[in-house]
């Protein structure tokens, strides 16, 4: 069994033995390691098509009504110049909507990459550069270092739940990491989270179809709390800072540059916390969202009046197709505006947290490496690929022979690359 499967609260992966799992097909975020052989044109997982069904049915009915009236009662026509003028305005509005939404999505991913990088550096500083004292104190130091690494993972997991408006500590992947800490979230959490009530058919179908009246308030858990919730990721950082301070005080982290590096890493994690909060709580101003939605819908509703003269009955499918393009782009912008949610196209924070936990487990799986053990190892082929001789063989040679070998290695590498380049050029000419 893999370490991920053994870890309490690890995310349950989808059953890859089934071709289609309808229970999870329209839920997200999408699995990062999932591979589909279907062409993008035929894929529904991650598509906004389910949310487009009701708008397209309405547009189809509207286009049919306008076409029938124009055909059998009175021709309802609008000059095509209006299509050109409004088209430019709609294109500008959708471009602004899409660019701002994707900018938030990309910025969210950058912050999480910064979190991963800083976590790696801090974990390595703690595990490698914090010394272990002799005797029983050494045992305490190892357990303290491992506890500090757990706090790094706890920060990432707590941040994930905070960004999804899950403010408590009684989650499977979080309780084991922060249950022993004195935090506001722990005080506010019940001993057992209320069981998830089964959703009604209307609510399930409405969420798939993107009905606003079927969507739940994501902040309802925060609003219903009867006690202050604090800021769990920030409180985890306080405990992590306290560990760094104690390591400096007892001399385990005695080198000043490592002390500075550890404190700067904690500060960088705090920067990630503030930055992700800014991305989450600073959406596109509502006035822009309302105006763009109104402009888009007015344009789509005006299409049948402008297309009827040229297309006649083809106005109906033509309007539906144009509406799919225009409204689809607007819906994509709305979906990726919050990159930390549970939509299929949102960032897979569960996977990122699991990956970070595994990588930190790898860092702490062995004692801090000793250069003498891996540098002087008999299988260390120092001059690879020049030769397969080990360290002991090269150690017996003179300094001049070693420098000559280094120069020969550089020349050999250059010649190999030049030969490969010439070979590729010949293949390209053929």
Automatic annotation (TrEMBL):
GO cellular component, one term: plasma membrane
Localisation per UniProt entry: Cell membrane
Residues that span the membrane, as ranges: 52-72, 78-96, 286-307, 313-332
Superkingdom in the source lineage: Eukaryota
InterPro entries linked: YneE/VCCN1/2-like
Pfam family, one: Bestrophin_2
GO molecular function, one term: chloride channel activity
Keyword terms, alphabetized: Cell membrane, Ion transport, Membrane, Transmembrane, Transmembrane helix, Transport
Membrane topology according to the record: Multi-pass membrane protein
Name the record gives this protein: UPF0187-domain-containing protein
């Amino acid at each position: 069994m893999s370490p991920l499967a053994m870890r309490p609260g690890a995310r349950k992966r989808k059953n890859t033995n089934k071709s289609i799992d309808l229970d999870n097909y329209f839920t997200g975020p999408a699995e990062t390691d999932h591979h589909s052989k279907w062409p993008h044109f035929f894929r529904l997982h991650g598509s906004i098509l389910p949310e487009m069904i009701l708008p397209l049915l309405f547009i189809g009915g509207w286009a049919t009504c306008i076409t029938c009236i124009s055909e059998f009662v009175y021709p309802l026509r609008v000059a095509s110049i209006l299509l050109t003028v409004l088209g430019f305005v709609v294109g500008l509005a959708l471009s602004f909507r899409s660019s701002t939404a994707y900018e938030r999505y990309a910025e969210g991913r950058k912050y999480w990459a910064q979190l991963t990088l800083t976590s790696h550096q801090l974990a390595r500083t703690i595990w490698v550069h914090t010394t272990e004292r002799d005797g029983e104190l050494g045992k305490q130091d190892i357990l303290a270092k491992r506890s500090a690494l757990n706090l790094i993972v706890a920060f990432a997991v707590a941040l994930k739940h905070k960004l999804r408006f899950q403010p408590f500590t009684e989650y499977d992947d979080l309780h084991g990491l922060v249950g022993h800490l004195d935090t506001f979230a722990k005080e506010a959490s019940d001993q057992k989270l209320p069981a998830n009530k089964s959703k009604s058919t209307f609510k399930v179908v409405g969420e798939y179809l993107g009905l606003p009246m079927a969507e739940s308030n994501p902040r309802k858990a925060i609003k219903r709390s009867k006690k202050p919730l604090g800021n769990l990721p920030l409180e985890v950082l306080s405990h992590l800072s306290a560990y760094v301070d104690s390591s400096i005080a007892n001399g385990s982290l005695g080198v000043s540059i490592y002390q500075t590096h550890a404190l700067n890493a904690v500060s960088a994690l705090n920067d990630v916390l503030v930055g992700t909060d800014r991305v989450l709580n600073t959406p596109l101003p509502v006035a822009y969202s309302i105006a763009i939605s109104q402009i888009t819908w007015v344009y789509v509703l005006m299409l049948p009046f402008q297309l009827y003269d040229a297309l006649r009955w083809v106005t109906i499918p033509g309007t539906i197709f144009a509406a799919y393009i225009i409204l689809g782009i607007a819906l994509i912008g709305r979906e990726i505006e919050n990159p930390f949610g549970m939509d299929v196209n949102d960032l897979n924070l569960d996977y990122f947290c699991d990956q970070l936990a595994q990588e930190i487990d790898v860092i702490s799986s062995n004692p801090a490496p000793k250069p003498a053990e891996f540098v002087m190892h008999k299988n260390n082929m120092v001059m690879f690929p020049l030769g397969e001789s080990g360290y002991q063989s090269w150690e017996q040679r003179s300094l001049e022979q070693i420098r000559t070998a280094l120069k020969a290695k550089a020349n050999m590498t250059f010649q190999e690359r030049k030969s490969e380049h010439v070979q590729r050029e010949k293949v390209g000419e053929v």
